[in-house]
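Problem 3 from the worked examples.
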Amino acid sequence: MDNNYSTLQYNSKARWLSYWYQISETLQRNPSSVLIIGKGSSIVENTISTIAPDIKIVTLDINRKLLPDVAGDIKALPFKDSSFDCILCCQVLEHIPFEAIKDTLKDFSRITKNSVVIFEPHKRKYLKIEIDAPMIGKKSLIMKYPFKKKSIKSRQHFWEINRGVSYREVKRVIKKYFIVEKTFLNEINCNHRFFILKKMRLK
């Protein structure tokens, strides 16, 4: 495994909450089979296998050193139609040009039977207010910075939400192939955006 994925710096507190959401949202889909695109630290894969050992998990990554079940490119997924109940794809799509994700999402729709869980970086300034009080409980308010940045400075990412493309643009492309059941932010790191998608059934 690449050293970057096995460090505590990479697996930060905020990232652990994102792992929790990836695991929770995937299990809530009640799948019998899951395709995990982007093997990373293997924490999500291993935890799902422990909690729900009957779920068939297949991992795909372009990096052979991570020892995925399938070494391959997200732009050319080598799977048959309706191969998996759920696809989990986290922090991967930003590694290909935004113009290419339309075809990738179309391929997701072809491969999944039911649902897709996506997690992408959503970069912007924000103000977060948290309240934990009797009768009210724990509440969180996130004030979003409304303007996108025109360019992105990254050696690895072609785009991020609000850096290169807007949140609205990302949702518009997703809605061509999926119903957005919900979308939300990691409340510890508000730069982590989740999209929970349901396959669009053709009439």
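Problem 4, a separate protein:
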Amino acid sequence: MLEKHEKHEEHEEIKVQNLTRFYTLVLIKSKSPITGYYILKRLKEDLGKTSSPTYVYDFLKSLKREGYLEDAKVSDSKRSQGYMLTTAGDMFTENIFSRFNNMIETAIQSKIKICASCGVKLYDSVHTEKIRGVELNFCCKHCAKAYKSQISA
């Protein structure tokens, strides 16, 4: 076991510095086992990005070489060769996600609204009403009604 750890130390750190690699890790983490074909398909569908199969498969090979992925059979695919995270791979992805967390939080922070009545954070489907000349955000019409009755009491 010590030999494997020493071997791991000899390799360069895998860098995740672009959306293709980051989203590949998201997909690997969210579905197991997963095929390279599935990753390419989802990159195109979800991000509108056609990635080079060579780029994606080379990234998968480097993850496997570092011990972050292992081969796995995919039963619901005609491409039965797939990959799944190892324990080390799970730790690696968590580390990457925590590094990206601040960046992602900053990116969506400007889009978050707060319900004026209950204080819940809203990202999508905001109910707005103009009350006393001020446009306020609410999570639903019921909170807007409760807010109006609270300020009129």
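Solution to problem 4. The two ends are 70 Å apart (CA to CA). The chain has two domains: 2-109, 113-152.
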